[in-house]
Amino acid sequence: MYICICHGVTDKKIVQTIEDGATSMRELSRELGVGTQCGKCTNCTKKILNEQLIDIVNVTEQVA
């Protein structure tokens, strides 16, 4: 699904960028341009970011 129409960024691209090491909105904005134009994608992008970071923490806890 497209999250940022202005820059043509999908949810899959956001997840991939997080998996590649992005951990903040600033990093996602720098890498993908999300939230830098109209800003309507910001809330959805933050939700995806938070969900992915929680998943990463949960997996790390299970491994440790």
UniProtKB/TrEMBL annotation:
Domain BFD-like [2Fe-2S]-binding: 2-51
Any one GO MF annotation of this record: 2 iron, 2 sulfur cluster binding
Record-linked Gene3D superfamilies: BFD-like [2Fe-2S]-binding domain
A Pfam family assignment: Fer2_BFD
Keyword Lipoprotein found: no
Keyword Repressor listed: no
UniProt KW keywords: 2Fe-2S, Electron transport, Iron, Iron-sulfur, Metal-binding, Transport
Cofactor needs: [2Fe-2S] cluster
Family: Belongs to the Bfd family.
Protein name: Bacterioferritin-associated ferredoxin
Higher taxonomy: Bacteria, Pseudomonadati, Pseudomonadota, Gammaproteobacteria, Alteromonadales
